[in-house]
Structures are given as structure tokens and as C-alpha cells.
Amino acid sequence: MQVSLVVAMDRRGGIGLRGGMPWHLGDDLRHFRRLTMGHHVLMGRVTYEATAGKLPGRKLIVLSRDAGFQPPDAQVAGSLAAGLRLAEAAGEDELFVIGGGQVFAAALPLASRLYLTRVHAEVEADTFFPDFDESEWRLVSQRDYTAGERNDFDFSVMVLER
Ligand SMILES: NC(=O)c1ccc[n+]([C@@H]2O[C@H](COP(=O)([O-])OP(=O)(O)OC[C@H]3O[C@@H](n4cnc5c(N)ncnc54)[C@H](OP(=O)(O)O)[C@@H]3O)[C@@H](O)[C@H]2O)c1
């Protein structure tokens, strides 16, 4: 099973603010929807709370250490390894790790593909993507989008592999 990370970050690696996203990027949301539809997506409990009900058609795996946390529409795993096992046992071919900061940090060493949206701005953020060595990664594709009615900022959607 391929483990892929999907993230949107600003120039400083910022990914979140006060439990939500620091921007609205309509074209990136559309890309995310198409990419992940029908697949297992794995996320932290905080990201689950922020996206509750907004990910129809995806099979949700939520990481939490709280044994009492039992969302109606997701499977819960107490560790990253247990989350991976759930997707693997279901026959998933590509698992998408979709955040947030804590879960990206745990899963980055296991990932061989990165769907990286680089937001060409510096925004206020309190959650960051972990530092990573871009020289380990090969650029497979890149598509650029411009700010406008749909998107708060210019951004580029890149696919990286290692
Ligand atoms: N820009 C992007 O691409 C993007 C994507 C996703 C999220 N975000 C943003 O990121 C922020 C949330 O990130 P975050 O780092 O605060 O939270 P998070 O990673 O979404 O969730 C953290 C929670 O997940 C559980 N958890 C994390 N690692 C675990 C592990 N190894 N084993 C078991 N449980 C684990 C814990 O839940 P319990 O406390 O229940 O034990 C922990 O409190 C939000 O602002 C969100 O909007 C941005």
C-alpha cells in the first residue's frame, strides 16, 4: 500500500490557524476531492473535528488516544501503525494522510508520495508541516493556479515522489 501525504502549506510551512485552514482555495479543494474520492484518508482527531461531515465518499480513519472517542462516520485507531493496518486490511492501494501537523510529522517518514500545494504567501499560522529535505524528493508534476474569486492566493499543486 502506498502512503501519500496531501498538504497545503504557505512559504513558511504554515498549514493551520486556530483549528482551521488559514485560507480558502476553491481550486485546491476540488483537486483534493478528486484525488481522495473513494479512498481511505487518515487524519488526526483535531482535523476530523474541523472537517466533520465535509468528506463524503472517503473512508475515514481518525487517530486518537482517547478510547472514548467514537465518531459515527469514521474508524478510530490509537496509533499510526494501527491506522495503516486498518487501510491495508481493507485492501486500500493508496492511503492519503491528510493532516494535521501532528499526524504529518508521524507519517512523513513512511510516505513515498507528497501531494504538495505550495501557497505563494506568508499567512498567520499556528500549525506547521514538519521540516523536510526537498532534495530527497523528485518533482513529478506541477500545476499553477492564480488568486481570484475562487482562490485567496496564487498556489502551485506539486506531486513529489521518493
Ligand atoms: N493545510 C493543510 O493541508 C491542513 C491539513 C489538515 C489539517 N490542517 C490544519 O492543521 C490543524 C490541526 O493539526 P494538529 O496538529 O493541531 O492536530 P491533528 O494532527 O489534526 O490531530 C491531533 C490529534 O490526533 C491524535 N493523534 C495525533 N498523533 C497520534 C498518534 N501518533 N497516535 C494516536 N493519536 C494521535 C491526538 O488526538 P487525541 O487528542 O484525541 O488523543 C491528537 O490530539 C488545523 O488547524 C487544521 O485546519 C491543515
Characterization of this structure:
- The structure is a single chain.
- With 162 residues, this protein is of the alpha/beta class.
- The chain is built from four helices and ten strands.
- It has an eight-stranded mixed β-sheet, with helices on both faces. A two-stranded antiparallel ribbon has the order 2-8.
- α2 (45-51) links the parallel β3 and β4 (59-63).
- It is globular, with a radius of gyration of 15 Å.
- The structure holds NADP nicotinamide-adenine-dinucleotide phosphate (NAP).
- NADP nicotinamide-adenine-dinucleotide phosphate binds next to β1, β2, β3, α2 and α4.
Chart the SSEs and their pairings.
Elements: E1 2-9, E2 14-16, H1 26-36, E3 40-44, H2 45-51, E4 59-63, E5 74-77, H3 80-89, E6 94-97, H4 101-107, E7 113-119, E8 127-128, E9 138-145, E10 155-161
Parallel strand pairs: 1-6, 1-7, 3-4, 3-6, 4-5
Antiparallel strand pairs: 2-8, 7-10, 9-10
The site of NADP nicotinamide-adenine-dinucleotide phosphate has 30 residues, from strand 1, strand 2, strand 3, helix 2 and helix 4.
- Radius of gyration in whole Å, from Cα? 15 Å
* Top-tier CATH class: Alpha Beta
Mind telling me which CATH architecture this is?
3-Layer(aba) Sandwich
Overall geometry comes to: globular
Q: Which regions are unreliable across 5 or more consecutive residues at pLDDT < 50?
A: none
Describe the sheet with the most strands. Answer: 8 strands, mixed
Q: What is the terminal separation in angstroms?
A: 15 Å
User: Which sequence of SSEs, written as H and E, runs from N to C?
Assistant: EEHEHEEHEHEEEE
How many discrete domains?
1
Q: Could you name the CATH homologous superfamily? A: Dihydrofolate Reductase, subunit A
**Approximate strand percentage:** 25-35%
